[in-house]
Amino acid sequence: MRAAAALLLWCAALLVPASASAADPRLVPDVSSRAIDIQYSFTGEELLLFGAILYPGQRLPDDRADIVVVLKGPVRPIILREKRRIAGIWINADSIRLRTSPGFYAIGSSRPIDQIVDERTAAIFELGLSNLSMSPTGFSEAKTLERFEGGLIDLYRRQGLFYQNPKAVEISEGVLYRARIPVPARVPVGNYRAETYLISKGRVIAVASRDVEIRKAGFERFVALAAERHGFLYGLTAVLLSVGLGYAASAVFRRR
Questions:
Q1: How many helices (H) and strands (E) does the chain have?
Q2: Which domain holds residue 149?
Q3: For residue 243, is it within any domain?
Q4: What is the CB-side half-sphere exposure of residue 122 using CA atoms within 13 A?
Q5: Looking at the 3D structure of the chain, how many domains does it have?
Q6: Mind listing the UniProt keywords for this protein, alphabetically (predicted)?
Q7: CA-CA distance, 67 to 168, in Å (whole number)?
């Protein structure tokens, strides 16, 4: 009997959080494409993030809710080097290694981030370019780390790899939302995550995500796979091809 009673109490404890969370709204997100193929003619694409907010009892709250969408990936380590001009020559000076730098990061929101959440919440969920956590290896002074991260963000922003738009999300009837995220032509291949945050009164009350894959296709995919799986043969073929083209070009010029 004691074992049965203990089992019932344990089950009840599991059901309490579920019933409490049932009062919170739920997100049903989706993306216009789960896979983006990069071919020789790829000039970029626009990814649509859309979905619905499901409120308990289908009753909309009086307070306005905001939506923030993030497309991020692939996360990888990177070494940043700072060049300085010494005696008229540009040389590498300071450097820093970041363990978790995203190759692409785009964020869109229904309002500016600083009007939706406080600095602490934005830092926890990495909402905004200024709140990216890139985890430097070793010890670095705060000013040095800020300088390097600021330079990386500025560089990637000019290349279209970092993007932030405080008016990208449109919310219709308080239930449906959509946002368009530009994907540039030089976007890195890999696995991405499209995240959606529902925020009310400065608190994140629901989070949902979808996976997106950006991959090479056609001849570009064949070359990439050959270089990855058969590195030696790929390198040998590249050398022989270069030598053959060089010999052919020299033969043509000699005839002239």
A1: 6, 10
A2: 22-216
A3: no
A4: 17
A5: 1
A6: Membrane, Signal, Transmembrane, Transmembrane helix
A7: 10
